[in-house]
Design goal:
Two copies of one chain form a homodimer.
Chain A (H helix, E strand, L loop, with lengths): L9 H4 L7 H22 L4 H12 L11 H20 L3 H6 L1 H25 L4 H12 L3 H11 L5 H29 L4 H36 L5 H19 L4 H12 L5 H24 L9 H21 L8 H10 L4 H13 L5 H25 L7 H7 L1
Chain lengths: 407, 407
């Protein structure tokens, strides 16, 4: 265990130290997340923003009771994997492929605009070109987990705009990988076009094949598998093996593990029943708070004291909001309301933007100040998207009977 | 992430290394566990033994694909906490208190016999007295998780023998704490009787108070809490907060976190419904394989090559089996069948015995050879209990309709 805590009362109570570490971490993270979810709900704000706020408060920058650690990261990653898996379970591949063309347009605008605007703006603000490129790349990211959680918890998943966002986020991840591959190659020397082509081909190939044929394969295979398995909860266990396998293959193909999790869910959408939905939902409810608190942990409040840096961070954040809103124009033919729904849905950068910033830090091409700026942008875009989403979707709820069937 | 893997094919496939680490770990552990569960089911052996076997194979002693690590331990601990929580949810406190007297007798015999027999036997085998004391203390442990999993999955939880085992395991943990406190104090110098008395008082006080009053408090509080919470799945989230809080308090009181988890489940048994059962079951199904594989990881096959050591380990294991069987005599008035059911139910030492061995290693009072012997005893007793339990309970299944209601 390497969670690090300093709640003052722990010293008085802990007898042996070690065995209380994990339960203390679980209680602090889960309890604070749910407490703030409740407070925010009462203030008519999204619960998800409350849980991220809990992370900011628990984190090193305020109370310092919980610090990022391996165990925390593993629980957070598992949480967001299950979240995307659950969302995938509720989406039929046909529904996603239907919106494929407009999603592609949304994703392309949503990658190109933030990247070039971010790069040029950062360069204009005085950053070196390679550092500016990383700022642009971080602005490309889309944290589909945040949007998916809001849409799923409110019963909006089946709205065409929601399906467009999900499809666009998958494509966005593939395009984002290519952008990041180019930027990191530049940071390390030069771009090898053959390597780059192979990377792109592998990512696109994996995603397309699983999205199109995964479902058909499972629909045929699962009945045969089920009748041959004698263990209990065979369908649920098979689903989890598929989830972990596709998450792993996704990382081998260069895209995020959560994209594999989403594709696994989608491949199973027509084959699993209420029972599996409920079981997966239990895991999601338990672990998603670790993902949300985990995002908040990285917030660095000391940035707010440095006026110049705060100015830069605010400007970058405004551009990050505006450029992703622009991606909504990919569905302009569906009316202004959907343009906003899609644009806001693509807005949160969350953990994906943070990973880019960390990579830049590891490669030594961005300063710790730029890192703070990117983290600020990633967290602020993540926290303003949920209330905006609720506004944009107002009046689009399913009727309660429908929603019960879905959730 | 600090899981360490060396599957040879990972080197060919992994692109970036880092992002595939967690999904690879999840797939290997969960996939292997379920594969072996299936194989063992087909051979008419308990699935649980298959999952531990998967851990032995994946572990450092055979394939070396997975090593014990912080993340692995955290998932395993979370898994066994949810397992005991789920079992607690199915047991009403009145059912446990009813069997309290016989359970106390079972626990006392089940602590004293293995401790003194283990200590004297180890001393007779040539161990120094402090090392022999630790062997005895490790033989005291009861891994209630293993027994609970077998009983719950087969629908035996409501049998009087099962309730006796659960109650005795809780008391066993408290008595085991006292034994371990004495032994560790001896290893570090001397026994402070005041400290020891306080330790015992705290452990007994916490367990008794929560077992007797927890349920009454929750039955009164929960309706009020529920009507006042506006967040979704409020009852489930409240249950998890209680679970983590009691697990933490249990460690502060000196007993194991899983005892707190069990007491939390029992306190909620009359207040939560099918929905919460299903959600908790999802988490349990997902994480318990990490607990079972985690036990197997510690197995050291090289011990089998050293004939003397293997002889010592086998003798200790036979004594460990016999002395816990003797604890079944606490229910001699209920007939021979129940004596066996209870005795076998108390048999697995699992992770609890291993923790004692590790403590001995850390305190520098047992050698690495003795450590291997204790681990061997802990794992073998854990693997022979499930098939014996199935034999002992044969014909005691609930009718399918009852079982559906329970599970």
């Amino acid at each position: 265990m390497d969670w690090i805590f300093y709640p003052p009362w722990a010293f008085f109570l802990a007898s042996a130290g070690q065995p209380s570490e994990l339960p203390l971490a679980l209680l602090l993270v889960f309890g604070a997340a749910k407490l703030f979810a409740e407070i925010f709900e009462r203030l008519r704000q999204p619960a998800i923003v409350g849980e991220i706020t809990a992370g900011i408060l628990l984190g090193p920058s305020v109370l310092g009771w919980v610090k990022p650690s391996d165990t925390m990261s593993a629980l957070a990653e598992l949480g967001v994997m299950f979240l995307l898996f659950r969302v995938g379970l509720e989406v039929k591949p046909s529904e996603i492929l239907e919106v494929g063309r407009s999603a592609l347009l949304v994703a392309v605008i949503g990658v190109m605009t933030p990247f070039f605007v971010g790069w040029l703006a950062a360069h204009a603000l005085g950053y070196q070109w390679i550092e500016a490129l990383f700022v642009g790349a971080a602005m490309v990211a889309t944290s589909v987990g945040i949007t998916a959680q809001v849409l799923a918890s409110k019963g909006y998943l089946h709205h065409p705009a929601s399906r467009t966002v999900l499809a666009a986020a998958v494509i966005d991840d593939v395009l984002g990988l290519i952008v990041l591959a180019i930027v990191s190659s530049l940071a390390q020397g030069g771009v090898n076009l053959l390597d780059l082509g192979l990377t792109a081909l592998l990512a696109i190939g994996f995603t397309t094949i699983v999205a199109i044929w995964g479902n058909r394969l499972i629909v045929r295979l699962l009945p045969a598998i089920e009748t041959n398995l004698s263990a209990m909860e065979a369908r649920f266990n098979f689903s989890l093996v598929l989830l972990f396998a596709l998450a792993l293959l996704a990382t081998y193909a260069g895209v995020a593990a959560i994209i594999g999790a989403f594709l696994a869910g989608m491949a199973l959408a027509e084959s699993v029943g209420h029972r599996e939905h409920d079981l997966v939902h239990g895991v999601t409810e338990t672990l998603v708070p670790f993902f949300l608190v985990g995002i908040g942990l990285y917030f660095d409040l000391s940035l707010l004291k440095n006026t110049t840096l705060l100015g830069v961070a605010s400007l970058i954040t405004i551009l990050a909001v505006a450029t992703k809103l622009a991606s909504g124009l990919g569905v302009w033919n569906r009316g202004r309301a959907d343009v906003f729904r899609v644009g806001i849905g693509m807005m949160p950068r969350g953990e994906v933007g943070m990973v880019v910033a960390q990579l830049g830090l590891v490669l030594g091409v961005i300063s710790s100040q730029t890192y703070s700026v990117v983290i600020f942008m990633a967290i602020v875009t993540t926290m303003i998207a949920p209330p905006l989403l609720r506004l944009a979707y107002r009046g689009q709820e399913c009727r309660p009977s429908e929603r019960l069937q879905i959730v």
